[in-house]
């Protein structure tokens, strides 16, 4: 078993014991330390010199990344860059915790591996639901469901805290981006039939409200051929009797009151009703 291949496979940092159990020899470990090919961020751990700095930082303190930090590193849709969130065991010294980090001391939903640098996603999501505003938590949970990183039925069988259970009850896997989650959540008070990622005339639309009203949402980097294709599809929908409203990332995130005013006016005009 090659030490360096095994370390890279494990993200560049892991416990010495894990490597030995995987078949790396004690001689190979000792030799790598002697020549500086690996470093020791903490007693019982080894890492490649170019290992991820954040992973090194949490291991040195006996912590692991969790909550929104773990979600962000898994590629989930996190609305805004957040403080670092770390998990500490109940036996950890509070003096090891960095002042700039949010620390979670709660018991995990599923047991944590002793060589984990990042929390199990199920634990991270449970903490997101307890730590973040409901809308933010819903965005992150729906992103995980949409990417197939968690299974709704399996999550439901866990002993989740009440806040996580509430998010799970609302979360659906259909939102293709956080913008879709936001707009559906914020419009739920209208009590209108809404279908995310509806298929109309050869393309998916972000949101179909009622029978004839389509809302399209442009991401922060919505440019080029994709935008051209989407505009052409808007025209096709209009020719087939649909009402199309398109909003940008900036409008939804920074000027929601204006977006909501347009939408309520559209409802007042009955754009969602069949013609």
Structure description:
The chain has a 4-stranded mixed sheet with strand order 6-7-8-9, sandwiched between helices. Strands 3-4-5 form a 3-stranded mixed sheet. It has helices at residues 3-9, 16-22, 26-34, 53-60, 67-73, 121-131, 134-146, 152-156, 162-170, 178-186, 224-239, 249-254, 256-268, and strands at 13-15, 45-47, 64-65, 85-87, 102-104, 194-200, 203-209, 213-218, 243-248. The chain is elongated, with a radius of gyration of 24 Å. The chain contains 13 helices and 9 strands. Strand 6 and strand 7 (203-209) form a beta hairpin. The model has no long low-confidence stretch (mean pLDDT 91). With 275 residues, it is of the alpha/beta class. 44% of the residues lie in helices and 15% in strands. Helix 6 (121-131) runs antiparallel to helix 7 (134-146) and helix 7 (134-146) crosses helix 10 (178-186). The N and C termini lie far apart (69 Å).
Which structural class should the secondary elements be placed in? alpha/beta
Number of strands: 9
Uncertain regions spanning at least 5 consecutive residues: none
From the alpha carbons, calculate the radius of gyration and give it in angstroms: 24 Å
Order of helices and strands: HEHHEHEHEEHHHHHEEEHEHH
Share of β-strand residues: 5-15%
Could you say which overall geometry the principal axes of the C-alpha atoms support?
elongated
Instruction: Count the DSSP helices.
Output: 13
The residue-averaged pLDDT reads 91
Instruction: State the distance separating the first and last CA atoms.
Output: 69 Å
Spatial order of strands in the largest sheet = 6-7-8-9
The helicity comes to 40-55%
Largest sheet: 4 strands, mixed
């Amino acid at each position: 078993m090659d030490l360096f291949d095994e370390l890279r496979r494990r993200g560049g940092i892991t416990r010495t014991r894990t490597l030995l159990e995987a078949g790396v020899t004690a001689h190979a470990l000792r030799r790598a330390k002697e020549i500086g090919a690996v470093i020791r961020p903490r007693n019982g751990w080894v890492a490649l010199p170019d290992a991820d700095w954040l992973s090194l930082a949490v291991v040195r303190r006996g912590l692991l990344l969790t909550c929104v930090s773990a979600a962000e590193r898994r590629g989930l849709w996190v609305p805004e860059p957040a403080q670092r969130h770390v998990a500490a065991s109940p036996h950890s010294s509070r003096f090891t915790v960095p002042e700039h980090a949010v620390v979670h001391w709660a018991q995990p939903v599923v047991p944590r591996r002793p060589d984990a640098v990042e929390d199990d996603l199920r634990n991270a999501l449970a903490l997101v639901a307890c730590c973040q505003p409901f809308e933010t938590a819903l965005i992150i949970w729906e992103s995980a469901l949409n990417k197939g990183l968690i299974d709704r039925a399996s999550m439901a069988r866990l002993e989740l805290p009440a806040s996580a259970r509430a998010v799970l009850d609302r979360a659906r896997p259909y939102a293709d981006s956080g913008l879709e989650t936001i707009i559906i959540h914020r419009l739920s008070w209208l009590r209108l039939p809404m279908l995310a990622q509806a298929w109309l005339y050869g393309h998916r639309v972000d949101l179909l409200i009622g029978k004839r009203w389509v809302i399209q949402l442009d991401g922060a980097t919505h440019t080029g051929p994709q935008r051209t294709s989407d505009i052409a599809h808007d025209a096709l929908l209009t020719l087939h009797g649909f009402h199309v409203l398109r909003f940008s990332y900036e409008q939804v995130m920074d000027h929601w009151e204006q977006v909501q005013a347009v939408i309520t006016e559209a409802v007042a005009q009955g754009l969602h009703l069949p013609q």
